[in-house]
């Protein structure tokens, strides 16, 4: 094989990390045709196909994913070398790209990222999306880790994903009035109206099971698949709701909402998902370990 052209590798690295040839062309001030020609030459020199087009997107092949892993490390080391030359000290900075399921509690996500917020050497990015887009981003190395309330490992056939439980939070009944005495479900909610998560959620399933066991039919005023909207409905509708109290942490602290009681034997589970065959960086491992250390406390 001919000596590797690192200009070509750099163009591939930029395009592979964005999936957008136009964006890269604008950022590095080259024409799209010039970058396309360079990428074509690079692949011909390597003797493998690294990228394929699906619609308007450029998707990494299996060989492309392997090359990108090396490119990430090469250019990360290059930044360290440049910093050493310019400042005389090695760079300690790093970046963590996190994908977040769209309907996940924002308060939970903020708590999960707290170690990064307090780490002056690490930056991070958060991007919300649906589950299929998150998994696609993980497989194409746009994300280092994704957060979801689904155990992705269940039902998978090829062992692509590694799904790790990082939090298990009690599902609680939340209401607008301070409870005067210990409440019991369902006796204390005979005339209550409810705002609830949508039918396909883990929280709603747990609530439905509790209602079925108690032979209780709730009066459902509204339902939503958006936890941020559920938080607003719980705060402003005057109805009861069910969710982990972390979702309405600020409202509870300010006396706008009150935890009535825990739903019996009901929990929402939060998972950190990574690629099974990709080495986890120390920064990502620190996030996982920190979150797991609080599992017992948060339940």
From TrEMBL:
The UniProt keywords, alphabetically, are: DNA-binding, Transcription, Transcription regulation
Q: Where is the HTH lysR-type domain?
A: 4-61
Q: Is the keyword Transcription regulation assigned to this protein?
A: yes
Q: What is this protein called?
A: LysR family transcriptional regulator
Q: Which family does it belong to?
A: Belongs to the LysR transcriptional regulatory family.
């Amino acid at each position: 094989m001919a000596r590797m052209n690192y200009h070509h590798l750099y163009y591939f690295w930029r395009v592979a990390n964005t999936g957008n040839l136009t964006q890269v062309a604008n950022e590095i001030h080259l024409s799209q045709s010039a970058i396309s020609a360079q990428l074509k030459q690079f692949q011909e020199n390597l003797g493998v196909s690294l990228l394929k087009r699906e619609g308007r997107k450029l998707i990494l092949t299996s060989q492309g994913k392997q090359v990108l892993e090396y490119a990430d490390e090469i250019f990360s080391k290059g930044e360290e070398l440049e910093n050493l030359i310019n400042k005389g000290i090695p760079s300690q900075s790093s970046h963590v790209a996190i994908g977040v399921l769209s309907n996940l509690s924002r308060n939970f996500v903020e708590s999960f990222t707290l170690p990064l917020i307090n780490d002056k050497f690490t930056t991070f990015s958060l991007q919300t999306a649906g589950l299929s887009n998150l998994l696609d981003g993980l497989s194409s190395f746009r994300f280092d880790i994704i957060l979801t309330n689904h155990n992705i490992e269940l039902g998978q056939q090829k062992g692509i994903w590694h799904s790790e439980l990082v939090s298990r939070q009690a599902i609680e009944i939340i209401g607008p009035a301070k409870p005067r005495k210990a409440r019991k479900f369902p006796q204390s909610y005979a005339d209550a109206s409810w705002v609830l998560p949508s039918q396909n959620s883990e929280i709603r399933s747990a609530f439905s099971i509790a209602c079925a066991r108690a032979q209780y039919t709730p009066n459902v005023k509204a339902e939503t698949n958006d936890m941020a909207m559920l938080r607003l409905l719980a705060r402003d509708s005057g109805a009861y709701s069910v969710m982990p109290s972390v979702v309405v942490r600020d409202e509870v602290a300010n006396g706008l909402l009150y935890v009535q009681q825990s739903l019996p034997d009901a929990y929402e589970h939060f998972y950190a998902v990574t690629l099974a065959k990709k080495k986890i960086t120390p920064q990502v491992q620190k996030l996982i370990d920190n979150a797991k250390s609080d599992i017992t406390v948060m339940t």
